Amino acid sequence: MVVLSYPAGAGADDQDHSRTQQGFNIAPVRLSLHGRNHELVGLGSYLVNAVGGCNDCHTNPPYLAPSLGAVNQVNTAAYLGGGVVFGPFVSRNITPDKTGLPAGLTFGEFLQLIRTGIDPDQLHPQLGPYLQVMPWPAYRNLTDRDLRAIYQYLTTIPCLEGGPGEPPNRCGAGMNRSGFSGRYCEPVGGLVRRRYL
Ligand code: HEC
User: Fold this and answer.
1) How confident is the model at residue 194 (pLDDT cuts 50, 70, 90)?
2) Within 13 Å, how many C-alpha atoms sit on residue 61's CB side?
3) Which residues contact ligand 1 via a Cβ below 6 A?
4) Which of 16, 28, 33, 83 is the Cys-Cys partner for 74 at CB 3.0 to 4.6 Å?
C-alpha cells in the first residue's frame, strides 16, 4: 500500500521562502534594502509584481511600447508613480516620499486604508469616502503579514515626483530615508498633478 505523505517542511514557511526568492527575481527596479527585512521585501515584491498587478494601474504607462523580443517590459522610469486615468479617477503615486513612507502613509494608515477602503486624502468626497477602481475589496482579505510585506516592499522602491494630491518636491533634494539620492526622483513624464471633479 502506498501512503502519500507530505514532508513536514512543505508548509507555509517554505512557500513563503520560494515566493520571496521569486519576488527578488522579478522586482523591476533597484531596491534600497538597507535596514529592511529581506524576507518581507521579497514576499512583498512577489505580491505587488506577480499577484496584485499594482503596476498595471499605478504606472503610467505600465509597459514600454512592445519591441521585437521584448513584450510587457515594465516602464521602470514611472514605476508606481501613479497618474493613470480611469474616467474621473486617477491612480495615486505609491512610491515612498522623502520621509520614506509609501504614498506618505505610515504602516498603520496603509493597513487602515486597505482594510476599510477609506481614502485618507478624501480627494472626491462628493462621491463618498471610498477609494474607487482600487481593488481594496479584494486586498482587504490579505493577511496582516502579506500587507506588511507589500508595505515594506513599497518603502524600498525609488521615489518619484507627481501624482494626485502630492506636494511638489515630494522626494526632496538629497538622500531620503529610503536611501535614494535625488537623481532617482525624476518627474513622471507628462504627469500633471491634479485635483479632479
Ligand atoms: C485596477 C486598478 C488598480 C490596481 C490593480 C491597484 N490600484 Fe491602488 N489605486 C487605484 C486608483 C484608481 C486609486 C485612486 C482611487 C481614487 O481616487 O478613488 C488607487 C489608490 C491607491 C492608494 C491610496 C494612496 C493614497 O495616496 O491615499 C494606495 C495606497 C494604493 N492604491 C495601493 C495599491 C497597491 C499596493 C496595489 C497592488 C497591491 C494597488 N494599489 C493596485 C487603482 C488600482
Assistant:
1) very low
2) 6
3) 48, 52-54, 56-58, 86, 89, 91-92, 94, 103, 113, 119-121, 123, 131-135, 139, 150
4) 28
- Let me know if residue 121 belongs to a domain: yes
Ligand 1 geometric centre to CA of 91 (Å): 6
- Pair 39, 20: CB distance under 8 Å: yes
- Please write the tens of the pLDDT for every residue from 57-109: 999 999 998 877 778 899 999 999 999 999 999 999 999 999 999 999 999 99
Q: Which amino acid is at 81?
A: G
Q: What is the pLDDT of residues 125-181, one digit of tens each?
A: 999 999 999 999 999 999 999 999 999 999 999 999 999 999 999 999 754 444 443
Residue 195 lies in a domain: no
Q: How far, in whole angstroms, is CA 84 from its chain's centroid? A: 14
For residue 114, give the H/E element and its range. helix 107-116
SS3 153: helix
Q: What gap in Å lies between CA 48 and CA 104, rounded to an integer?
A: 18
Query: Is residue 1 included in any domain, yes or no?
Result: no
Which residue's CA is minimally distant from atom 14 of ligand 1? 91
Find the domain containing 146 and state its range. Answer: 29-184
* Count: domains in the chain: 1
The Cα–Cα gap between 30 and 137 comes to 30
